[in-house]
């Protein structure tokens, strides 16, 4: 997963639910150096009777926000979903640098 362009990551999940695996893997995919250098990470654990729904919300450097439901997607699907926009930003960055 291309995490270089993330500025804010919000993850909300139930640690005992089916969404826990993909949400935790997504959090682990963010390198430690990036966590300290400007990417804001917020996570919220939900209890079984919570009225809030699980969500992964990522804000990119160009202020684009994307949301996904970790209970309906695997980690690989989440990665592909967010990588689409990261690839666009990477292409834009490479064009501007030439």
UniProtKB/TrEMBL annotation:
InterPro entries: Ribosomal_mL53, Ribosomal_mL53_fung
Keyword Mitochondrion: yes
Alphabetical keyword list: Mitochondrion, Ribonucleoprotein, Ribosomal protein
GO cellular component entries: mitochondrial large ribosomal subunit
Pfam families reported in the protein's UniProt record: MRP_L53 (PF10780)
GO molecular function, one term: structural constituent of ribosome
Signal sequence extent: none
Keyword Ribonucleoprotein: yes
Localization: Mitochondrion
Main location: mitochondrion
Recorded family membership: Belongs to the mitochondrion-specific ribosomal protein mL53 family.
Protein name listed in UniProt: Large ribosomal subunit protein mL53
Organism whose genome encodes this protein: Lachancea nothofagi CBS 11611
């Amino acid at each position: 997963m291309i995490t270089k362009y993330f500025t804010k990551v919000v993850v909300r999940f139930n640690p005992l639910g089916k969404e826990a695996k993909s949400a935790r893997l997504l959090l682990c995919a963010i390198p430690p150096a990036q966590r300290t250098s400007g990417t804001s990470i917020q996570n919220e654990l939900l209890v079984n009777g919570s009225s809030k729904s699980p969500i992964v919300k990522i804000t990119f450097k160009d202020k684009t926000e994307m949301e996904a439901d970790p209970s309906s997607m695997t980690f690989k699907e989440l990665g592909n979903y967010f990588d689409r926009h990261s690839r666009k930003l990477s292409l834009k960055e490479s064009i501007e640098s030439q």
